[in-house]
Write a structure and sequence with these properties.
Number of helices: 8
Shape: globular
Mean pLDDT: 94
Low-confidence stretches: 237-246
Order of helices and strands: EHEHEEHEHEHHHEEH
Number of strands: 8
Helix content: 25-40%
Structural class: alpha/beta
Length: 246
Amino acid sequence: MKVIGISGSPTKDSNTDTLVKTILDATGAQTEFFKLSSIKVGPCIACMKCVRTNECIINDDFKWLSRKVMEADAIVVGSSTFYGAASAFTKAFIERLYSKRHIKLLTAGKIAATVAVGVAAEKMVGEWLGNGLRAGGMEIVAGMTAKGTPCCFVCGPGETCAFTVWNAYSKELTGMDLGVEEAYKGYLELLPDNKPYTHGSAKFLKGYRSVKDEPEVMAEAERIGKLIKEKIKNSRKTAGDSKCRC
């Protein structure tokens, strides 16, 4: 039984990394973890050279990474959220899986789970990830989201910047209450003179939000790992079956 985890977060030891690794550990399987920002997987160039071969011709690390995907019983894909979307690293990886879809749908039947970490749009990113893997014929057994550390917490001038992520997602700019202020109680205090995109005024109560400090989030990752384990176990055929995977 083999499960691989892929993180599209470029941040070192990120919350996305932690949750993907926690899921892998909970499977009890042989696992491998890959961080896309540490290797080179570029976007699809729409050359369509993979139509007959199901092999991408671009000479980068997707060549060996795609073999890891094909060897795995299950795959866990995680992404941080930027501009309300998956990271560019994650998007490129999902695009390149297109080479495995043509004619044979080679990834059909693989088990998959998703992780999305963000400030306000992580649920949309999680849905996108699931849809992308589902398009490859994979069975999505679970998906989870979590709140991460806004980059404005660590950039330096975040307390006085008018264009911070919480101001970008504010009701004043979007016309909707996306719950950022409520979600980051205990981490962020918006001061009375804060005016989105006019005058930034906030106080950081904590400098970093770690999923390791949130037992419910970590428990959900462990639950998903165990679910993957059971799903793989139940999907294996008995010896003599023409579809035996044992």
